[in-house]
Amino acid sequence: MASMPDAGRHVGARRSFLRHLLVGSGAAMFSLHASLAAAAEIRGVRVGSRGSGVRLVFDLSGPLAAPAQMSAAGDTLHVLLPGVRSGSAIPRLRPLGSLLGVRRVAPGAQGLAVDLAIRGAVHWRSFSMRPAGHAGYRWVLDLLPDTRDAAGAALPLAGSGRPIVICLDPGHGGHDPGAIGQVGTREKDVVLDVGLRLAELLRQTPGVRLVMTRDSDRYVPLLERMELGVHHRADLFVSVHADAFPLRTVRGSTVWALSEKGASNEAARWLAKTQNAADPILGDVQAGQHNPLLNQVLLNMSQTAAMNSAASAADVMIRGLAGVEDLHNAQVQHANFVVLRAPNVPSMLVETAFISNPEEEQHLRDPAFRDLLAHTMRDAIVAHFVKAPPAGSCWSSAQHVVSHQESLAEVAKRYGVNAQILRLANHLDGREAFAGQRLRVPIMGA
User: Model-level pTM?
Assistant: First the structure.
């Protein structure tokens, strides 16, 4: 190592001496530091949701004398704020997520002790903030849900991976009106409105990136819709429709996945034929013309992972729709829809209702019903990813053990979702969770 110049060596020696002095008289120096920062007082505490956890912000009159100290014992988190002398401004905190409230506030020689009542196992992180803008000194405490699986293995915290990509496809559009109801309701208008409502809800979901095949009244060829999902490497492709059948008494919701060998029934064959016939360029493909993309799709259809994932997502969707509309089929149906043929992209087609049925046409014309459809579909999509977060994404899963007197709504709020999402993800189907039950819950990235 090169020798240090004299001046630098003297500076280094002084720094070394001061370090030894601080280490040798830590208690005395801490007391001195605390006394210098004795003016620090808590001016207020704010509590709010932060992702899947709870954030507490302590507004201070000055900086902490030293880093805060925290330890957990049972259902209490002990916090020591060095150099803070008064906690009279700490309000009675409302319960939120894993935070139940404040048990004790006690000033002491080293600082202010604050005992927080918590629910379940939590992780925490904290940091201090200097004055900025209109805000003064702040100390921030985040309470994060326990991210360990049933075997006790650590699960990754959210935010370390890519977003989940969802490709949303409102059917038809432009010169293609789709099916037309008895009083003139056009399928393309209904599904676009449902799609836009659903898109807004998905954009508000942490860790989700949305792609739409259309967001206005324009026509997009079927192969381009499928190719868009492939191009963006979508984790799920959802095509939204409101189809028709010659028999006007046919009604109810249906969810479709791709069939390798043929349609589930005669209705499925009829629907697949009418949907695919809406795209004029498919006539050339089906007549024997070579289309490189379609050939690639057909060659890769032997890859079953995407189809299995699509079947799982479609099952969650059909269970969700069962609470909104009568089901035309209680099981996922299979047909050879072109938009579902994308390789390595789990794809499903949701038939919200039959626009050819006069009663269901009136439902589809109601904005409140379309909004309900959008919320229901959002819940089902999120529940699918709670069950099976994509590899490499910023979502992961954890298991939450329901405690006594803990409602499903409280668990859902803690993890930033609603109770219906947890019902769908855990096959509760309308039931409440019971004490001791293990629920799969999401850790959602930002």
Answer: 0.60
